[in-house]
Design a protein that fits this description.
binds fe (ii) ion, six-stranded mixed β-sheet
Amino acid sequence: MLIAHLSDVHVGGSRYRQDLLETAIAEVNSAGPDLVVIAGDITDEGYPDQYPIAKTELAALECQNVVMVPGNHDARNVGYLGFEDTFGDRDTRARLELAGLDVAVVAVDSSKPDLDTGEIGREHYGWIHEGFTGPADLRVFVCHHHLLPIPGTGRERNQVLDAGDVLSVLRHAEVDVVLAGHRHVPYVWPVAGMLLIHSGMVSTLRTRGFPHPAYNLVHVNDGRIAVTLHVPGGEQQSLGSYPRDWPAELSARHSDPFVRPQRGTSLADG
Ligand SMILES: [Fe+2]
Ligand SMILES: [Fe+2]
């Protein structure tokens, strides 16, 4: 099973490069992924003239299953309404049969209008958990912002505000893969039974530490999940191959005593 993981398209920005996006889409189409995830910052500023261009460009994706969330750049002022008008819901729950696997996908808008910081929000936790309930071969969570800091991106400023609680929810839900963007630097954090996979910027030149445009291909095979970084029109590089099932003592799915099991009760009651 193959997932193409793109983010940070930034259509309309001064450093946006349409040729990079077209090259990346052509490469993704020839790879033939079962699922394409676009993890936010589709437009540079969420202006009404940027969304139609983004829609036209992304329509070249041939995959039947495309899941998108907005990013902070899409949501500015009321830009998130433009996202809804152009692409539909900002949050998605889906069950997909992909290459013989039952895949649960939950994608949540982590943006807040006019803030660069992300937040999932505790009102979403039950909804997220429900989306992953029941048997599944692979559970995939998508949001724009990062749940852990990314090396090589300077000082930490925009991480998901409630990242700790969200990580706990995802761990309990037995999520396998988290796909995010925002920091424009590709990176994989293996944490507590999950792979937190971050894509670079696919079609803009808006970073310094890792200056290349990039997207990821995530291969899910019998025993492993392998992540490869691709520079549109350029080279590729492995971001690692990881075991699909972690040893129980490392994933420790049910070890968190504080968030969900104790909801509604005070520790002082015990
Ligand atoms: Fe971005
Ligand atoms: Fe962003």
